[in-house]
TrEMBL record, chain A:
Domain CoA carboxyltransferase N-terminal per the UniProt entry, residue ranges: 5-265
Zinc finger (C4-type): 9-31
Descriptive protein name: Acetyl-coenzyme A carboxylase carboxyl transferase subunit beta
GO cellular component: acetyl-CoA carboxylase complex
Keyword Secreted: no
Enzyme class: transferase
Gene from which this protein is expressed: accD
Automatic annotation (TrEMBL), chain B:
UniProt cross-references to PANTHER family, sorted A to Z: ACETYL-COENZYME A CARBOXYLASE CARBOXYL TRANSFERASE SUBUNIT ALPHA (PTHR42853), ACETYL-COENZYME A CARBOXYLASE CARBOXYL TRANSFERASE SUBUNIT ALPHA, CHLOROPLASTIC (PTHR42853:SF3)
Keyword vocabulary terms for this entry: ATP-binding, Fatty acid biosynthesis, Fatty acid metabolism, Lipid biosynthesis, Lipid metabolism, Nucleotide-binding, Transferase
GO CC annotations on file: acetyl-CoA carboxylase complex
Pfam families: ACCA (PF03255)
Xref: SUPFAM superfamilies: ClpP/crotonase
Example of a GO biological process term: malonyl-CoA biosynthetic process
Lineage: superkingdom: Bacteria
UniProt-listed Enzyme Commission number(s): 2.1.3.15
Record has ATP-binding as a keyword: yes
InterPro entries: Acetyl_CoA_COase_a_su, ClpP/crotonase-like_dom_sf, COA_CT_C
Name of the protein: acetyl-CoA carboxytransferase
Domain CoA carboxyltransferase C-terminal as annotated: residue spans: 4-245
Length: 265, 281
């Protein structure tokens, strides 16, 4: 009972009333650190109420290289979270503007990208191209999924090509990087947005910190691979707090939707 | 159900390929370029921050046809290996590659990529200079070029660092090369918390040319039988054959073929039911 009424901030350890924490968008009111959002909370935070229509629902399981232990891992996560993959995609409205939206959920195998995530992202861009909707993806991923071997790697090329085709047709793609966005996801569709937004304090990068420390024997600077660090080095357009995220996205969409008034063809 | 001894044999085979692919005496990009192509002129720099030593880039002739070549270089001595960053490419290397590929597009030259890397360079500066963005940008732009791209994995095809030169119309693999989403050691240390399990993981990850050919992820295996001279000649013939095939296509067809090649990986998925192959294991 008590556990349900309170949450503990993973960063500073403060015990916070769950209701207050939720009202503050799962941001700690003491240290301002951001809690991990599941896809439902993320949707509720950024889209107009009751406008989500899920697309390409996948309830099965795919083990393209018959990797040992993969099915068991899938079953375990599925029974614990109800999730069958690391991304949910669909149509929605943000401030009454239609978008195709993708939300990655780290509860499923650290949000890693395998063949189904790659396929869902690709279809998201293909559907958006056809419908002439903008695309918004909230990335949260440890990278390519090892258990699907080479097929995971190929999803990087596939999704990048999908962004490319969509982009060539003139579509707007906003990428919102959330904690964490690393590896094969950061090195494919995550960093290909026309506009790249990040949440404060998110871990964003390519190589893992431990890998860098071990192979190169370098000391990591403070703030390394955070949103703020990437922003300072010119790889992110803006860092946006959760409380203003929906309106910021809404404004960007609005500026891109003035087609009928467009005089410069 | 495979017998455990068969599985062990396969894992050993995969691991032996990993070791062969990494062997310090193995043929390297530079040697291959000099032997396969004529009149090679190296070109340098990304016009931004530097010239990455893991990437050999330039222009050359192949049977009188002008081509752009980009090769990941490792070297054959410890000193050379260090100089070339063990073939680990930095963002400026991917951007140098992209610059040369754009130039190839402008002058209508086919692009030949030779892949040999344990992975993209993992370092503080590499992150600071946008390693992820650099790789992503290569994937994005390579999808769109209208000149043919031929990639050959000549040794190690290490993850995103290899794929950033691997979005090609045809992907060849040398017989003893490997291509993987993660190094067997990395996989073992993450999944098993024990990097000594790397040989087993090499088998599980299906990294050999034969496995990847069976999956249809690569197009052809180039035999390593014979002397280097014989092998280089074989490589030359294969590139020639491929360029001849592509010469029958127009630029738009070349672009579409390449996009379709990657698009189809996973497009067979039905978004409803369990995969039957899983139930057997």
């Amino acid at each position: 009972m008590a556990q349900n009424l309170f949450v503990k901030c993973k960063e500073c350890g403060t015990i916070i009333e769950r209701k207050k924490y939720a009202e503050n968008n799962d941001v700690c009111n003491v240290c301002d650190s951001y809690g991990t959002l599941d896809y439902k909370k993320r949707l509720a935070m950024v889209i107009d109420h009751d406008t989500f229509e899920e697309t390409n629902i996948h309830t099965g399981f795919y083990n393209p290289i018959d990797f040992p232990g993969y099915l068991e891992k899938h079953e375990k996560i599925k029974s614990k979270t109800g999730l069958t993959e690391a991304i949910v995609t669909g149509k929605a409205c943000i401030n009454e503007q239609k978008v195709m939206i993708g939300i990655m959920d780290t509860r499923y195998m650290m949000g890693s990208m395998g063949i189904i995530v790659g396929e869902k992202v690709t279809r998201l861009f293909e559907d958006a191209k056809e419908l002439k909707y903008p695309v918004i993806i909230f990335t949260a991923s440890g990278g390519a999924r090892m258990q699907e071997g080479i097929f995971s790697l190929m999803q990087m090329a596939k999704t990048a090509a999908a962004v490319s085709s969509f982009g060539e047709s003139g579509g707007l793609y906003i990428s919102v990087l959330t904690n964490p966005t690393t590896g094969g996801v950061s090195a494919s569709f995550a960093f290909l947005g026309d506009i790249i937004v990040a949440e404060p304090g998110a871990l964003i990068g390519f190589a893992g910190k431990r890998v860098i420390e071990q192979t190169i024997n370098e000391v990591l600077p403070p703030n390394f691979q955070t949103s703020e660090y990437l922003f300072e080095h010119g790889y992110i357009d803006m860092i946006v707090e959760r409380k203003t995220l929906k309106d910021t996205l809404g404004q960007i969409l609005k500026i891109h939707s003035q087609e009928e008034n467009q005089i410069f063809q | 159900m495979k017998s455990s001894s068969n599985e062990e044999l396969e894992n050993n085979n995969a691991w032996s390929k990993v070791l062969l692919a990494r062997k310090i005496t193995r043929f390297r990009s530079l040697e291959m370029i000099k032997n396969v192509f004529d009149s090679f002129i190296p070109l340098h720099g990304d016009r931004g921050i530097g010239d990455d030593k893991s990437i050999i880039g330039g222009i050359a002739l192949l049977n009188h046809q002008a081509v752009t070549i980009i090769g990941q270089q490792k070297g054959n001595t410890p000193r050379e290996m260090e100089y070339h960053q063990y073939g680990m490419t930095k963002p400026e290397g991917y951007r140098k590659s992209l610059r040369l590929m754009r130039q190839a597009e402008k002058f209508r030259r086919p692009i030949i990529c030779l892949i040999d890397t344990p992975g993209a360079f993992p370092g503080v500066l590499a992150e600071e200079n946008g390693q992820a963005e650099a790789i992503a940008r290569n994937l994005y732009e390579m999808a769109n070029f209208t000149v043919p791209i031929v990639s050959i994995i000549i040794g190690e095809g290490g993850s995103g660092g290899a794929l950033a030169l691997g979005v090609a119309n045809r992907v060849f693999m040398m017989e003893n090369a490997v291509y993987s989403v993660v190094s067997p050691e990395g996989c073992a240390s993450i999944l098993c918390k024990d990097s000594r399990k790397a040989p087993d993981m090499a088998g599980n990850l299906k990294v050999t040319a034969r496995d990847l050919k069976n999956y249809g992820v690569i197009d052809e295996i180039i035999s390593e039988e014979g002397t280097n001279e014989v092998i280089f000649n074989r490589i030359k013939q294969n590139i020639n054959k491929e360029l001849l095939r592509c010469s029958q296509l127009n630029g738009e067809e070349v672009r579409k073929e390449r996009i379709e090649k990657f698009r189809k990986i996973g497009s067979e998925i039905t978004f409803t039911q369990y995969d039957t192959r899983v139930k057997k294991s």
